[in-house]
């Protein structure tokens, strides 16, 4: 990892040198290129860890343990609710002197916690634990792992926001997200086969795959060593410029209170309002589409898996295209246009049945369409937030967005569950129609958000 000297006339009391002012353009380009490659590799290895400790692999493990629907509800809500701790993590991270050291400490502990479950699975195979105890242990690890990880999310995003040049954000995050999606598509089926065909049983098979996932997760953290480190204290007192076409520079910025800065930043507040309403509207129906296919339509799980793969493949193919387009025309126009499409997609489920035409044509096309447009939503939301949040105390801005979005998303899921049970809404189909209205309404504040130009 680069360790270079600070050369500036501004009075600084920092002793850890991390940004070189008078480096040559080619050196800056090489440093950025190395950082972006390291970040992409980190994403690939970390995806293996994330897919192992969540998603279908963890759900299948809990199914084998005869976990109740309440357990699966908790499993879905924990990652959203723990986002409330992100402001505390951002506050702590801004008082450190190294993004890398803080990230390695937080995520190292968070990922190594899963070794306890590996030990628990081994103990269960020896008769030391029963299924119910393993379920409780799993939920506790999910809770504390996400809690600790939540302390590092905002700092990590702020770190990435600095090292990725603004003019490359769309293309870079398009490539990075494509690498994540491709890793997901390749890894999950192979891991699933390994678990289901493990000689000692699926529980032991998951234990082995989990151990492998932890190793990959730690390798991903090791890749962060090769990213250009950033000193948060220096970032908060100076605007850090890392343009590949100019020399690095540090521009002093005012030392205002971050609380007052947030309340005075009307553009950020409007974006926060939009994003919180959007997350509530999306989660009002989002978690129930799979339930609709499995329960109401009574489709075999293999069909749902195929549709999910088609959606992931479409997401992979479109991600880079959306990234290049975002660099050319901006993120807000794409979010408004695609947001309208996302808003009407719940209505496309209303006429779906179990006929051959629906199974072989309509549902596959619907999932391909969803994968294509969600690639734009995920990418542009990330890019727009990075552009709107000021450099000073940037991680705190990211944390506030994550906390509010997590709370509103959890509220949306809860409301959706209650609404689906009300007879006057006619079950899930009524919920889908209602969520479409909420999604369109959530887009209104986005029209008033000003996106910074490159």
Features:
454 residues, mainly alpha, single chain, 18 helices, disordered N terminus, Growth Hormone, Chain: A
Provide a descriptive summary of the structure in words:
The protein has 454 residues and is mainly α. It folds into 2 domains: 25-252, Growth Hormone, Chain: A (Up-down Bundle); 258-448, Growth Hormone, Chain: A. It is built from 18 helices and 2 strands. It has helices spanning 25-52, 55-64, 69-81, 86-93, 99-112, 115-125, 131-163, 169-196, 202-223, 232-237, 258-264, 266-285, 289-296, 301-329, 331-344, 356-388, 394-421, 427-442; strands at 238-241, 249-252. A two-stranded antiparallel sheet has the order 1-2. Helix 4 (86-93) crosses helix 7. Residues 1-23 and 240-255 have low confidence and may be disordered.
Domain count, please report it.
2
Q: How many angstroms separate the termini? A: 28 Å
How would you classify the helix and strand content by structural class? mainly alpha
Number of strands: 2
- Percent of residues in helices comes to over 70%
Please, what is the CATH homologous superfamily of the largest domain?
MFS general substrate transporter like domains
* Average pLDDT level: 81
- According to CATH, the fold-level topology of the largest domain is Growth Hormone, Chain: A
Largest sheet: 2 strands, antiparallel
Using only CA atoms, what is the Rg?
Answer: 23 Å
Taken in chain order, the helices and strands follow as: HHHHHHHHHHEEHHHHHHHH
